[in-house]
Structures are given as structure tokens and as C-alpha cells.
Write a structure and sequence with these properties.
The structure holds 2 protein chains of 2 kinds.
Chain A lengths: L2 E3 L8 H9 L5 E4 L4 H10 L9 E4 L4 H6 L2 H15 L4 E4 L2 H6 L3 H12 L3 E4 L7 H16 L10 E5 L3 H4 L4 H11 L3 E6 L5 H5 L6 E4 L5 H11 L3 E3 L5 H17 L15 E4 L2 H15 L3 E5 L5 H4 L3 E3 L3 H8 L6 E4 L12 E4 L3 H4 L14 H6 L6
Parallel strand pairs in A: 2-3, 2-4, 4-5, 6-7, 6-8, 8-9, 10-11, 10-13, 11-12, 13-14
Chain B lengths: L1 E2 L15 E2 L8 H6 L5 E7 L5 H10 L5 E5 L2 H6 L5 H12 L6 E7 H6 L3 H11 L4 E7 L10 H11 L12 E4 L11 H8 L4 E4 L6 H5 L6 E4 L5 H11 L2 E4 L6 H13 L8 H18 L3 E5 L6 H10 L3 E6 L8 H10 L4 E3 L6 H4 L4 E6 L1 H7 L1 E5 L9 H15 L6 H8 L4
Parallel strand pairs in B: 1-13, 3-4, 3-5, 5-6, 7-8, 7-9, 9-10, 11-12, 11-14, 12-13, 14-15
The chains are: A alpha/beta, B alpha/beta.
């Protein structure tokens, strides 16, 4: 996939996804790169960075080390820092240069763990995949290592899966979501992985149902189902109808022990187009369809949930593909990150829903509160007058 | 002199640990620097991840319309043939751009250092297809940071490498600065020194309104490099364009300032009394030292390429320099580091990228910081808004810096706002 991109910035990469998912859990995170990749993450993909004492580092990879494959130097530096900082775990991830020289991240992590006694993870991230792949991988690895088996599952308890600032920012969206589910009558045990400690996450196997709130939580939901028998549902409680629909799905999932997927909101005669992270876009879409009677289509430049892939959701792997769909005269309303607006070359109402993985700090202080009746406020004045 | 790891200077205070990248770390970055060339479009050819910080910085700074990307994937890298994609991408790019650029810089990333791409091969194809377009290659390759030609140096060479030898004769009495991204203050005495030396028309790339204006830099009589980053570019121009050059590194040491001006004046065999400027700089330092009245000061390498030189001047003039934040010491600054070590052993040297930095960071302290990174790490309440010696040079630079320090302590600084305004990019 060779892509010429003229207007949009590159989106958040896989190593940022890993760091974002692990940021709050007390580990030492290292990006194996020269400095630019770490700068991408700390400067543009991590709204929690300023003022933080989190241990995120660059390994300062240099040309000679790359050519000579000097893994011992890398390991020694990591061990020296770990001895000083005593992290709860160590996560080492790759970037484009290590991809080319074939660094064995899993092997290095095993050696670090053997020598330090600290749980260690190697992530073969490449900078050639998007953030959601990294988030997904990190959530699974942390669950595999730290979630403890649980005999009894309490009814009406949930884990929310797939929460990172790259999809939700840091301004209350995840706490809002948690509160919304609690208002719906559930107890949220943990949120993978924002606002929950490693200890919280370790007890997650006692939940009765998991809720996938972004596509990057889907593989973890499957893991919980396979390993601990916890069924899952997919969606965010955006709007009145969907809130009720999600309650119904959760009840059904808990009762039957089987996972429940929502119906696609997409239709052939759509007048609105939603572009963004799949679960968020589909949740907004269902709200528009069910609460406002607006037929919608959804496009996703990112990871898609396999069973929901063929549900009318368009895959948009390049700037050209986004541009092509926005040319469609049938769409009078477009919802997405403000940066997609630059690709709209005709008249249509554009509603901004910032996505940190796209527009980073340009809009990470302008989050849109979508859950509950939040979308009403957003649409008032642009669509509903 | 103490260091964060406790090692004395003699055994080397600078350690290579895994590196912390604070929110105050960075500078202009490669993209913004190369954007100084007017009417030049940058096409990055790299894995998409390499471009995120530059593109978002460009959006913030307002020049994203001159920056595009050709993303390469694993198959392109493994096959080693990604350079074959570039001419086609250039054709498509030029078709899509609203305003046709006069120059195009193909920028490659760290991977290119390992893959050894044949740049000349794709440049030849592009030049043949687009004869009116000036084309060059730039590198954003921090993997070479410890080498002889780090990215900040290399990009200056790429920018001025776009200049071609002119058929027209050189313009008498003209000089241009290389390597300082922001022009020096025109009130500075260096311009009087240059006028006295016969250079009445002194230019800076930021003053070039279009590509033709930039192109005229190929006809200067002299190039001046006031920073180490511009030195090699000026040397290149000597060879390629026949323009004489002078390395005139920024300094806060009065004797060194005199020596530098002496070299410039000797080009014309004239002399100049710089006593008034020197006295004014001394007066400014004295006044500010009194104003600070023993307030601890931290100096860092984000403020100046020569933090030890600045620290020595401040220490010699009654300032209480508590800490110098520097990841390393450039050779030019080494004698000043050694002087501080011998004469002010309590002054601390801390590496801002040391792995202990995030846990050692102070949330707030009663200090004045000269520079962003020291400000962030020390939690300094007051910050002098100086980055990369911008606008500062000679005695005027010393006076201006002293005035900025005095102003800074008038009220606490909102460092986060300062960083946002500056638009730091790693």
C-alpha cells in the first residue's frame, strides 16, 4: 500500500498505542529508536505527558549499534535504569530501524526478565502499523500476565475494554462512560487501560460481561471469553436508544453466556457519513439513525472488528480513499476529526469529533462528550435547528 | 563540579543511559528548519510513523501545505527498491498541489542510512521530468546524532545545497548568515562591525521573500556561520559556489567576542573601538545580578549551544548558577566546563535526558531558568524565554539576555504556554 498523503498528517503509530495502553500501570516503557519515534509519542500521542513522572524512554539507537546489532548495550542500559527505578514491569518496543535489522524483542525481554526478575515484555512494533494494533497487543499481553483467574463472577459487573487517550482523550470521556454504565445499573470493575491500576486490572476476570468501547479492545474481549468465559458486547452508550439497546445486549450476554454484537447502522441511502475509530463511529451512527432518524454510513481508516467488517463499514486505508468518499454528493452531513474537513471539497455540514490518534494536540483539549445525551448538544445548531 | 551520577569531571560526567524526552525537549526540527527555503515543498519518503511529529508541527506552525508524504511499507523496505516509487510520487504530487513549488526537497529518514539508497538515481529522473524544478535530498535521521554530521547540521547543508552557481558575478559587499534559524537582532553591534568591514548588505534566509530572492544567496561575497550547525553548509558553499566563509560562533565570553570581531575586521584591515558595547554589556550584567540578589539560576543547553560559556560569564559576574543542564559538552565549550569545575565546584551538571530526570523533576522551585528544559526539570518559577541563542549575538546579545533575565523575575512564568508558543518539535 503505497500512499501519497498531501493533506493529512500521519496517524498515531503502533508503538504509541502500546505506550498509551501501558502508561498508567507503573511500568518502564522504552521505544527502541533514535529519538523521533519517542518524540512522536511523548509530544503528540500522550496528552498525559506534561508534568508526569511516568517512565517512558528512548533507547537512543545509533547507526553503529544498528549495524553491529549491539543488543548487549541496550540490555545493560535498560537494566541499569531498572535498578534505579524499580518499575512494576518493563516494556520494550520497536520502530522502523529495528524492524529492518531484525531485533528480537521477545528474546531481549526474556533476557531482561531473567536478569532483573522484573516482568518484561517485548513488542515487535514497527512504526508501519497504526496505534490500535499496538493498543490491542499491549492490552492482551498485560492481561495474559496479570489477570488472575476468578471462581465467582458477580452479576451486573463490567470491564470496559479499549480505553486510551488516543481514542478518548483525557478530558473525562472515559470517566463519563464509566458513570454512564453505572447509571445504567452496572458496576464497572476496571477500564483497560485508563483510570484503573494494575491491581484493578488483575481482578478483571470477576466481571460478568465485557464491553468493547473501541476496536482495539476487541481482541482482549475475545481473550477474556476464551480464557475466562466472559461474554462481551460492543458499543458506547451514545444516545437514548443505544443506551437501552446496550442494556439489552448486556443482559442477554450475561444470561446466555454468549457475546452480542450490535446491528450495523449503515444503510444504502445514507445522508450522513461518519469517519473514525470503528466503535465510536458506529455508536454515533446508531444514535443518529435511532434517535434522529438520519440514515448513515461509516468509514474507518483504522482497525475493524472482524465480525463487523462486512456490516457496511467502508475501509479507508489512504488519504485518497477518504477524499473519494467525501466527494459523494449524497452525504449532507459528515462527522469526523476536524482534519478530515480539509478533504471535503463540496458543500456539506461537517461536525467535528476530534480523534487524538489523528489530530493530536491540535484538538485534544476540545473533546466531545458523546455518551448519554451528549450528542444532542453537538448536533444542536448544526443539524437540528 | 557535581554531576547527577556523582562522577567527577575528570572521569566524565556525561553518561549514556536510556533517554528521557521531557515535554520541553526539542527545537525547530528538520521540517520547520527546511521550510525557511521559500517556495520549497518537502516530500518525506519514509514509514508513516517517521512523519507524525513534523506534520503536526507543520499544522501548528501553518505550513502543512508545503509538506507531503510518501509512505513506504515493509515490502518496499525489504525489496530495497523504494526509490523507484519516488519519481512517480513526485509527478502525482505536483499534479495535486494548488501552487507549483519552485524547489522540492525529498526528505528521507533513519532507514535510509541503513539502506544506502542511491539518491542521485531518482534525482536524475525527477530533474529530467521537471526541468524547471530545483530538487535536493534532506535527511531526518536522528540515528546519526552522535556522528560528525547530525541532522541539524545536515539539513542546513541540504537547504543551501539547493543553491546553484550563478552565471552572474557575486554581489560586492554582501554577506549572509548560515545556520541560525532566526536572524540576529539588527541592533546588534555585529552589523556595525560588518559595515566597517565593508559588508553593507547582510542577509538572512528568513528575509528571502521568494525562491528568486533565496537564489540570490548564491552570489554573496561572504557567508557567516554564527552556530556550529551552519558551519559545514558554509564550507559546502565555499566549494560549490566559491563564497568565502567565516565561522563566528556565538559567545558570552567578552574576550572571545572581541577576538571574533577582530577576525571579521581584519578582513578589511580596519579597526573599531568596541569599548562602549563591552561596558554596556557589563553594566547590564551587573544590574541584573543586583536585581536577582542571589536567586538561584539554572542554565540549559536548549537556551544556548554554549551553556558552559554562558554559565561561566554569569558566575564571574555575581550570579548564583546552581545547575547547568546539558546532555553533553561540545568541544568549543569544553574549556568553560573545565573552568567551572575548578572554580565553582558546587555548580551541578545534570543531563536532562538522564533516566532519573522524570523522578527527580521538581514541581516548583524558587529559581530562574534560562531555557525551557532546565525550567521544566527544575520547576523554576521564573523563566527567561531564550531558545537556541535566537537573536542573541555578541555584546548586544549579552545585554539583551541580561535584560530578559531581569524581566523574567517580575512575574512567575507559564512554561506550558511558552512551550506551546515556541512549537517545540523533537
Amino acid at each position: 500500500m503505497h500512499k501519497l498523503t498531501v493533506s493529512l498528517p500521519p496517524f498515531s503509530p503502533d508503538y504509541s498505542g502500546v505506550c498509551s495502553a501501558l502508561f498508567e500501570l507503573g511500568g518502564m516503557l522504552l521505544i527502541h529508536d533514535a529519538s523521533g519515534c519517542t518524540g512522536n509519542y511523548t509530544g503528540y500521542d500522550e496528552p498525559r505527558w506534561y508534568g508526569s513522572r511516568a517512565q517512558v524512554y528512548c533507547t537512543a539507537l545509533r547507526e553503529l549499534d544498528a549495524v553491529l546489532g549491539n543488543d548487549d548495550k541496550l540490555i545493560d542500559r535498560i537494566l541499569e535504569a531498572a535498578e534505579d527505578l524499580n518499575p512494576r514491569f518493563i516494556g520494550l518496543m520497536g520502530s522502523p530501524v529495528p524492524t529492518v535489522i531484525g531485533v528480537d524483542f521477545h528474546g531481549i525481554a526474556r533476557e531482561i526478565e531473567a536478569r532483573s526478575g522484573i516482568p518484561s515484555f517485548g513488542f515487535a512494533t514497527t512504526g508501519l502499523q497504526l496505534y490500535d494494533v499496538g493498543v490491542s497487543d499491549a492490552l492482551i499481553r498485560i492481561a495474559e500476565r496479570f489477570v488472575r483467574p476468578c471462581g465467582d463472577r458477580a452479576s451486573g459487573t463490567l470491564n470496559l475494554l479499549g480505553a486510551t487517550p488516543l481514542d478518548f482523550g483525557i478530558e473525562n470521556l472515559v470517566p463519563d462512560m464509566r458513570t454512564e454504565f453505572e447509571d445504567m445499573g452496572y458496576r464497572v470493575l476496571s477500564t483497560f487501560a485508563m483510570g484503573s491500576s494494575l491491581d484493578d486490572l488483575s481482578k478483571a476476570a470477576s466481571a460478568s460481561v465485557n464491553v468493547v468501547i473501541s476496536a482495539s479492545g476487541y481482541r482482549l474481549a475475545e481473550w477474556f471469553f476464551d480464557r475466562h468465559g466472559i461474554p462481551f458486547v460492543v458499543g458506547q452508550p451514545v444516545g437514548r436508544a443505544q443506551r437501552e439497546g446496550l442494556c439489552r445486549l448486556i443482559e442477554e450476554a450475561e444470561f446466555s453466556g454468549e457475546s452480542r454484537l450490535p446491528e450495523s447502522p449503515c444503510s444504502a441511502e445514507a445522508s450522513a457519513f461518519l469517519i473514525g475509530e470503528q466503535v465510536t463511529a458506529m455508536s454515533i451512527g446508531r444514535c443518529l439513525k435511532d434517535d434522529y432518524g438520519i440514515p448513515v454510513n461509516v468509514g474507518c481508516p483504522f482497525m475493524t472488528i472482524p465480525p463487523l467488517k462486512g456490516d457496511g463499514v467502508l475501509s479507508l486505508p489512504s488519504e485518497e480513499s477518504v477524499e473519494a468518499v467525501l466527494k459523494d454528493e449524497g452525504y449532507s452531513l459528515v462527522v469526523g476529526d476536524p482534519l478530515y474537513r480539509s478533504l471535503l471539497r463540496r458543500s456539506a455540514i461537517f461536525v467535528d469529533v476530534p480523534h487524538v490518534a489523528v489530530s493530536s494536540k491540535l484538538h485534544w483539549n476540545d473533546p466531545i462528550r458523546l455518551v448519554g445525551d451528549g450528542l444532542d448538544g453537538l448536533l444542536k445548531g448544526v443539524v437540528l435547528e | 563540579m557535581r554531576s547527577c551520577c556523582g562522577c567527577p569531571v575528570a572521569s566524565g560526567i556525561f553518561r549514556n543511559t536510556v533517554r528521557y524526552c521531557s515535554p520541553s525537549h526539542g527545537g525547530w526540527g528538520i521540517v520547520r528548519t527546511a521550510m525557511l527555503v521559500p517556495e520549497c515543498h518537502q516530500l518525506f519518503v519514509s514509514p508513516f510513523a517517521c512523519g507524525r511529529h513534523g506534520a503536526l508541527g507543520a499544522l501548528v506552525q501553518g505550513f502543512k501545505d508545503r509538506l507531503s508524504y510518501l509512505y513506504i511499507d515493509e515490502a518496499d523496505i525489504v525489496s530495497g527498491g523504494y526509490e523507484e516509487l519516488i519519481p512517480e510520487a513526485v509527478d502525482r504530487l505536483l499534479d495535486r498541489l494548488v501552487k507549483e513549488p519552485r524547489a522540492l526537497m525529498i526528505v528521507v529518514s533513519c532507514l535510509d542510512d541503513l539502506l544506502c539508497t542511491d539518491h542521485e538515481a531518482f534525482l536524475a529522473v525527477i530533474r529530467e521530468r521537471h526541468p524547471g524544478l530545483r530538487v535536493g535530498v534532506g535527511h531526518m535521521n536522528p540515528i546519526s546524532l552522535d556522528g560528525n554530521v547530525p541532522p541539524a547540521v545536515n539539513i542546513q547543508r541540504s537547504m543551501y545545497g539547493l543553491l546553484e552557481r550563478s552565471d552572474e558575478p557575486s554581489i560586492p559587499g554582501t554577506a549572509a548568515f548560515y545556520g541560525n534559524n532566526v536572524p540576529l537582532d539588527e541592533e546588534g553591534e555585529i552589523f556595525e562591525v560588518l559595515r566597517t568591514s565593508g559588508f553593507h548588505d547582510v542577509r538572512h534566509i528568513s528575509g528571502c521573500s521568494d525562491f528568486d530572492d533565496f537564489d540570490e544567496l548564491s552570489r554573496m561575497s561572504l557567508n557567516l556561520a554564527p552556530t556550529p550547525t551552519g558551519r559545514l553548509a558554509a564550507k559546502d558553499a565555499e566549494r560549490a559556489l566559491g563564497i568565502d566563509s567565516e565561522y563566528v560562533p556565538v559567545s558570552y565570553d567578552f574576550d572571545e567576542i572581541d577576538e571574533c570581531y577582530g577576525r571579521l575586521l581584519s578582513r578589511s584591515g580596519r579597526s573599531m573601538d568596541l569599548g562602549d558595547y563591552r561596558r554596556e554589556a557589563q553594566r547590564s550584567l551587573d544590574e541584573t545580578a543586583n536585581r536577582l540578589d542571589g536567586l538561584p539560576v539554572v542554565v540549559d543547553a536548549s537556551a544556548t549551544v554554549r551553556p558552559f560559556c554562558l554559565a561561566r560569564t554569569l558566575l564571574m559576574n555575581g550570579f548564583k548558577v546552581e545547575t547547568v543542564y546539558a546532555q553533553k559538552c561540545i568541544p568549543l565549550d569544553r574549556p568553560y566546563l573545565e573552568w567551572i569545575s575548578e572554580n565553582f565546584p558546587d555548580t551541578e551538571v545534570l543531563q536532562p535526558e538522564h533516566h532519573r530526570s522524570p523522578i527527580a523533576r521538581e514541581a516548583e522551585s524558587f529559581r530562574l531558568a534560562v531555557g525551557f528544559e532546565g525550567a521544566y526539570l527544575s520547576g523554576a518559577r521564573y523563566v527567561a524565554n531564550v531558545a537556541n541563542d535566537e537573536t542573541l549575538y555578541g555584546y548586544h546579545g549579552v545585554s539583551k539576555l541580561a535584560a530578559m533575565m531581569a524581566r523574567a523575575v517580575e512575574r512567575p512564568t507559564d512554561l506550558r504556554a511558552l512551550l506551546d508558543d515556541y512549537g517545540i518539535v523533537v
